[in-house]
Amino acid sequence: MEKKNINFTYNDSSKVEQTIVINNDDFDLVQKDTHIHDTKLETKPTTFFKDAMKRFRKNKSSVAGGIILGVIVLLAFILPFALPYEIDAPLTSETFLEPKLFSAGTGWWDGEKAYSQIVYDTVNEVPAGFEKRAVNDVVTTEEGEYYTDTVNEFAYGGDIRFYTDVISENSENTTGTLASYYYAYDLSNDYKVAVNFNENNEKSEYTLGEYRMYFSYLAMGDDFLYSVPKQIELKDYSKDYTDIDIDLTNALIDSGLDSTTKFIEVQQPQIVFELKASTEAKQCILLHSVLVTSDNEAEAEGLDVVSFDDANKALLTTKADSDGQENEGYWTGLRSKTTLNQANIIYADFDYDTYEVKYGEVENQEFGQTLIASYIDKGYMELDLDTYLAIDDPTEADLNALIDSFVILDDACPIRTVDNVTMSNVIGIQVVNVFGTKSLYRSLGYTSAPSFLFGTDSSGHDLLKSTFAGLRISLLLGIITSAICFAFGLVWGSISGYFGGNVDIIMERFCDILGGVPWIVVMTLCIIHLESNLQTFALALCLTGWMGTSARTRTQFYRFKGREYILAARTLGASDTRLIFRHILPNAMGTIITASVLMIPSVIFSEATISYLGLGLTNLNSFGVILSSNQQYIQTHSALIVFPSVIMALLMISFNLFGNGLRDAFNPSLKGSE
Amino acid sequence: MVKYTIKRLILAFFTAFVIVSLTFFLVKMLDFPKPVGQPATQFAYYANQNILGFVMDFTTAQTGYGELLWKYQDTARIWHYFYQTPITTQYFNWIHNIFTKWDWGTSTYIQPNVGVMHIIASKLPYTIRVNIIAVVIAVPIGIGLGVIAALKKNTMTDHIISTVVMIFISIPSFIIITFLMLWLCYQNSWLPSQWPSDMADVATQAKGYIIPVLSLSFGSICGYTRFTRAELTEVMSSDYLLLARTKGLTKSQTVTRHALRNAMVPIVPSILAEFIGILAGSMILEQLYGIPGIGKLYVTSITAKDYNVLLVDMAFFTMIGLAAGVLVDISYGFIDPRIRMGAKK
Asked: ipTM value of the model?
């Protein structure tokens, strides 16, 4: 080929040399008048963080975790200020309210507490010790389903088990007695005694024994202590437990007494049951009822003391009097004991509306004059006291007019209705007492009936508010701690990782030693030496926490400092500072920040752990303190521990999901790959 | 390998020594733990401390030795005035006592005048028994679940296992214990709500293990499942496993002969470390369920201000942590030939 390439020569197919001459004119610049420059990129450029965010958004579970986390954190910063309830001073009247979301009667999360096997008061038709207005859905047991052998105010029926203990063989006291006095026996009246026994003695501890029955009295002038009482046999020793019907008057007259005898003139006239004791087993008889009747109806009430047809009631009365002077009107004995046998008792299962008890309306409450005056002063209500107090001797009509003058002016008025008014004259001053319906929540100062989503704790604080207020403290502790750890760990890790060599070895050894101490030990030492407050906690957590950040930073530095772009920057004369802050840190930042964010839940966890060990914050109600102090109510008020625990679990799970998502998103090895 | 092991052991020993020494000074800077009980018992304590070199015994009041700890007139009518020895001297005496007599100190409150080592030895069995059962249950289940999840990667089974593991690994242990107690002890009364005493009958004692073991193994199972799944997934996607399959091995052969063995390399050391960790137990579980173990002892010693016990308990926890670390490092060498060969070079 010729050097000059303007003229080309070549041989064509018929071996004839041909020449091509190329002139300048043959060429024309294609883009002579167009501007040539880089076209703008069609797609938007991406940065490292944008890329990471994009990856993060694709991770659905992490986004969900992030949202839940965001909501919880937001609530922690809003709820303590948004909710009106008091959480600092103890509120003694509003303790242990159940969680309430739905209105009462829904059956679930409605502020009702389910009780079961509570003794039922059949007279007032309410479980014993509970407010009737708050009791719902009562299911009572059938009569005869449950029995009790313990005297109970709300039991009824049953038998008196009259028994004697086992005696030793040489004991002289071989019998026990059970007796009841009645002073007004008058043989001109016709007395009848009916005794009903229960033969159904199932308790193996006792055996049905041999008893007798007699009437005894001390004649006038007999010594109370030393004389032997006169005894008139009514029934001889036997094991006959069929019903006894005795005409007492006839029996006494038959034994020689005059029909005009009045026992008011003698001492201790009584009907006595005597039971033989045994050396082998406890002897007993079961008295279902003893009825002494008279044809003189005026005596009916007086005879009640020697009669009983409700063993539980009889024993209850005797018991009530037993600590005082011995009451001769009740069944008592010598060398014998009485217990109850198989009294009916009814238990109830029911729901108890805890809100109705504390905040509902109570009827028939008494309001004093001063209280009413203060309500009138506040403009809550109107009651024409002045007019009617001026009347010296108010009539029924006046009182009714006073009741009618009641008007509620303000909804905050705790008195809802006035049903009755009494006026009395105390030392010349007219005193008025008003009876009516009282609205409890209004008298506590609420404008509407409160409803606590999580219930209230032992101090009457709204658990929802105190939980989130505690969470706020714990979160703040977490944020402060991880910020300090982040700052210190970053510096330490950067130096250690960037310079390497001996500096690195010495710094690493230091970390090894400090890192070898369990965090709980560091925490304990700090708490013992300093007070148990927020600063101490932050200090102790920082002492162990920064090493995580530092180790992570160091790894990232090792990872990036050998890269070509660093070498290039160094060759171009970049200083150490520039290399660290402009070239390495920005790349490492994502991973380090993720780790720092994940430190927050671990701080919350540590704080709660310390609280559970009983070394928690003393002056602040942090999340851990609330959790651990409610632990003692796990059996009685489980909602107190369940709700904060669920929040804690949710928080930890969402933190983990969120953190894992962030970590995956920031891990540059995944960059570009989907 | 031997050189590596020795180096690692010496380093761990040095670390432990520094930490325990620091802890000693920090604890001794607190108030001197004074004993409780009868004067005679107290005197026995002080006399023993004098022999061990922690206090000085004078017959008259002294100045210049700081606060007078206690004075006592013994049966021979001789006065004893006790002062604290300088902390540095106490430190050297302490080290001396440990190495010559294995005497780590004396309890002042928990069991007055009883050696701390004796107390720790009496508490350890409770902790160990509960934890060993938990580990023995947790390791096979955890690894098994992890293997299932890895082999069925990206299927429903895997997703369910992974989600449950994620949830349980996130929930703090005290929440799990609380809910277990609520469910099993209070709502249904199947189990005792407190650790049964040693007097209780065998059935009750056996029931007492259920909650501690459950709550301890939940975390372990989840940890092992996640770890095994991650390791096995990585191995399963490796080239040599593909080669094994192309050679004609069945899937089960490749899994059992190649994948599992290689995946076990990091898992086995962690199991070994777990067995060391058994000694430390779970402080929070012992506190909540009232197990009279080593963790409960730690809390009791703080609240009772029995600092001698606290010091040794702290040292004990530290050393267990370090020992676990050393065991992991060394066992890696034994298990993984690459590390073993690397160390020889």
From this structure: 0.89
